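As promised in the previous annual report, we have extended the structural survey to additional targets. Below is the entry for Heparan sulfate glucosamine 3-O-sulfotransferase 3A1.
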Amino acid sequence: MPNLAYGSVSRHQNDAEVDNQESSLGASRDLLNNENDLDSRGEEWDEIRGDAKTLDDNAMSGFLNESESKKLPQAIIIGVKKGGTRALLEFLRLHPDIRAVGAEPHFFDRNYDKGLAWYRELMPKSSDGQLTMEKTPSYYVTKEVPARIYTMSKDIKLIVVVRDPVTRAISDYTQTRSKKPDIPSFESLTFKNMSAGLIDTTWSAVQIGMYAKHLERWLQYFPMEQLLFVSGERLISDPAGEMARVQDFLGLRRVVTEKHFHFNPAKGFPCLKRPEGNSKPHCLGKTKGRTHPNIDPEVVQRLRDFYKPFNSKFYQMTGHDFGWD
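The corresponding structure token record, generated without further manual editing, is:
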């Protein structure tokens, strides 16, 4: 297992040491180019027209208030894929003091050469009292991103939505299989050598869940108090409670509360509702909450054993036991 000690690693040091850690795992191997992820375009919601209306309202607001302007984000949801980032973003967009991009800009990983002016232009207009946000889950695991974000803003607030890494990996695989049904089985992709029980850490579905390893890189640039780790499980079981933590972290009034949520037992997660009136709850799209395939229990247990030291280190680093073991 790679060394997860982080206390002795000074911030802003040369990336060579991180690259050496990375080379011990090999490059990330993914079977799917995620450029076309529906998540990346923010189209996973049933009521797309509702989002369009929000944009229209924002445009009208900007027309009425000439003091509004496009600003670089003061907070970013940086990860993780299949953790609950889309749900968190939509929950946050209910807050009147937040202006957020619906689609994922992928600026710091895929479009960095286009420059900050290009990035700012993607942002919605906001007034001085509002917070501008975006979310791109691949930022958390991309080695160049922490330094790039630090260069833009040393004081930015960073949010990571994390989830049981085994469940997350299966969810990741399920999404990939929905687009490429002929891919190999989850079991065969998990191992470099099944008989020897060697987990393939170059498969991105496995690598993303090694949260402690990725966190080391962020802590070279940002103090822990600038990062908030949101539980993907609690975002489903207690969305109002997690939203209270997020709003406090962002320095916002607790506007989004339990009255905004309606649990949908058929989908298995909360839907949004407006506190006033009898409007229909606004739920995640049909591709959210896909049924997971049945995975060999022995493989699941091998993965749990593999992640256990990473989880333990992550709990220690964040000061929070997420209860995945």
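The longest strand covers residues 157-162. The radius of gyration is 20 Å. These points will be discussed at the next consortium meeting with the crystallography subgroup.
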